[in-house]
Structures are given as C-alpha cells and as structure tokens.
Amino acid sequence: MELYPSLLARLARLLEGAGIPYMVIGGQAVLLHGEPRLTRDIDVTMGCEADQLGRILDLTAKEGLRPAVTQVKDFVRRTNVLPVADNSTGIRVDLIFLFTPYEAEAISRSTVVHLEDTDVHFAAVEDLIIHKLVAGRPRDLEDVRGVLLHNPSLNESYLLKWLPTFDGVVERELVSEYRRLKGSLSRPGS
C-alpha cells in the first residue's frame, strides 16, 4: 500500500503546466478514500481526447515517462489509454483520455490533496465509486465496499444520476450493485 507522492506531484505539475485538467483514479484514489491496499501503479484520467496523443507523448517524454507499449498509436486507438513508465522509478502510469461527458464532469468535481508542495486532483469519492463499479472486477467491488465504509455521507443523488448511464456499457445493473454493496455494510458479520 503505497501512495507515490513525488510522482503524483510531478504528474500534477506536468498536466497543470500544459493546461490539461485531470484526476487521479484507481488504487491511488482508493488509498485516499478507502481501505489500505496494495497498488503498484497510477491511473490518471485527463481532460483531453485521444487526438491529443502527440502532445501528450511530447509532454511525457520531457518528464522522463516512456511509453510502456510498442504500438502506441494502435494501443491508444483500441483502449483510449496511454501506458507510460517513469524512467527513474519504473512505476507505471496509465494516462486515460477523456471520452464521455461523465468524465469531464467528474474531473471538474475532483478533490484536491496537497502533496510535496503541489495540489494534486483526485477523483471525488462518488466518482471513484462509479469508476470501480463500472470496472466491476472483484478487487474493484471490494474497493467500493471499503470506500463506502470510510465515507458514510455520500452524494447519493449524484451516484444515482450517473450509474444508470453505464447500463448499456457494462452487462450489469450498477444501481442494484451499488445498493447491494451498501446494504452489505449494515448486516452483522459483513
């Protein structure tokens, strides 16, 4: 369980300096909002679309971040993600390009955390829950449970507004999944 403050601060300065809004998601955001857990990477959603790949590659190269895949353009076209590795630490960073109106709103709601004299934008707790429910792997659902345990006061209307918009994207009913996880917290032995 490790938050990478130096690299997070470097990424924040890089993106802010280029005028690119962003938010840290994934395991790093779980460390902020939920239960301690092992994570070995950083996931960042950027407020720019994949047509900005050339610009992002130029920025990351100047910061010592090299692509972690060989066919970069093809990989980004298929996944909307640019995986890079930090030359000095070897830590992988997944830079995720914006592709829905939801992500733009989520970035605008980010939570600011001061790390190493730098403001770093993390996903708000509700947006972290949405991201984890959409991903839907067992680890993600366990993360949601931990986030719910640590954050009993949520903007549930925000969650209920956005979760149904992913029902056609994923093969699960996310509102029901959210309610099931939330309900499991109040049962004895859960």
CATH topology of the largest domain: Beta Polymerase, domain 2
Strand order of the largest sheet: 1-2-5-4-3
Shape: globular
Largest sheet: 5 strands, mixed
Provide structural commentary.
- The protein is built from nine helices and seven strands, in the order αβαβαβαββαββαααα.
- It has 190 residues and is an alpha+beta fold.
- The protein has two domains: 5-124, Beta Polymerase, domain 2 (2-Layer Sandwich); 129-184, no CATH class.
- Strands 1-2-5-4-3 form a five-stranded mixed β-sheet, with helices on both faces. Strands 6-7 form a two-stranded antiparallel sheet.
- Strand 4 (81-86) and strand 5 form a beta hairpin.
- Helix 2 (26-33) packs across helix 6 (125-135), helix 6 (125-135) runs antiparallel to helix 7 (138-150) and helix 7 (138-150) packs across helix 9 (174-184).
- The mean pLDDT is 92.
